[in-house]
Amino acid sequence: MQTDVKQSTEQVMEARHSVRKYDSSEEIPRGKLNEILRLAATAPSSWNLQHWRFLIVTDPAQKERLLPIAYGQQQVVDAYATIVILGDLEADKSALRVYNDSLEKGYINEQVRDTLVAQIEQAYQNNPQLARDEAIRNASLAAMQLMLAAKAKGYDTCPMGGFDREALIEAFRIPSRYLPVMIITMGKASVPAYPTSRFGLDELVIENSF
User: Fold this and answer.
1) pLDDT reported for residue 1
2) pLDDT by residue (tens digit) across 115-167?
3) Is the dihedral of CA 14, 75, 57, 85 positive or negative?
4) What domain count does the chain have?
5) What DSSP letter does each residue of 146-167 carry, written as one string?
6) Does residue 208 fall inside a structural domain?
7) Structural domain for 138, as ranges
8) For residue 195, what pLDDT band results from cuts at 50, 70 and 90?
């Protein structure tokens, strides 16, 4: 029986490692999976457009379809859930809905809504690269939050960039609006993650300027 163990944010961050071998018999109750996804969706996003979508693959037959797309990485089959993180290339279309909701709740007034919606529309129209950059950037924020939320609930994850994007889009009929950013496997580890080392702050941190 899976039970939550309360951990500090620092403990969760230090405990999270990429797990590639999963106990295929360990299920994640739907309520817990939904809670992890809900927490992931509290991630920040540019203009609050919430660029992420989560394609959840739990059906064994569908995971088998995913296996060759993921270049034979067995973890996509053995993990309870394999989650495709999608970035919204047309997130600007959500602007009016987002800010109408804020208006109805009294968070902003009409002038602020109209200003922000116009700003978003102009930004997306004037910079073709922006849509892709924002889709990847903001979906990645949600992806990291999802992995931390999973660890806080007692489950392991692994982010994967090694997969055939075009084959994934075709096999799972992903609309052109959405860009596959990464795949995350989630479940219960059968073998602990490999230990890793990290660069020291003396190598990572630049004070004020190069």
Assistant:
1) 38
2) 999 999 999 999 989 999 999 999 999 999 999 999 999 999 999 999 999 99
3) positive
4) 1
5) HHHHHHHTT-EEEEE--S-HHH
6) no
7) 17-190
8) confident
Q: Which residue has the tokens 């709740």?
A: 105
DSSP 92: G
- What does the block give as tokens for 205? 């941190």
In a domain, 117, yes or no: yes
Number of other residues whose CB lies within 10 A of the CB of residue 182: 18
| End-to-end Cα distance, the chain | 52
**Amino acid found at 163:** F
- Give, in order, the Cα–Cα distances in Å from 9 to each of 6, 145, 158, 166, 200: 10, 11, 19, 37, 21
CATH number of the domain to which 38 belongs: 3.40.109.10
In this structure, are residues 113 and 72 in contact, taking their beta carbons and an 8 Å threshold?
A: no
Q: How far is CA 113 from CA 59, 97, 100, 116, 151, in A?
A: 42, 10, 7, 5, 37
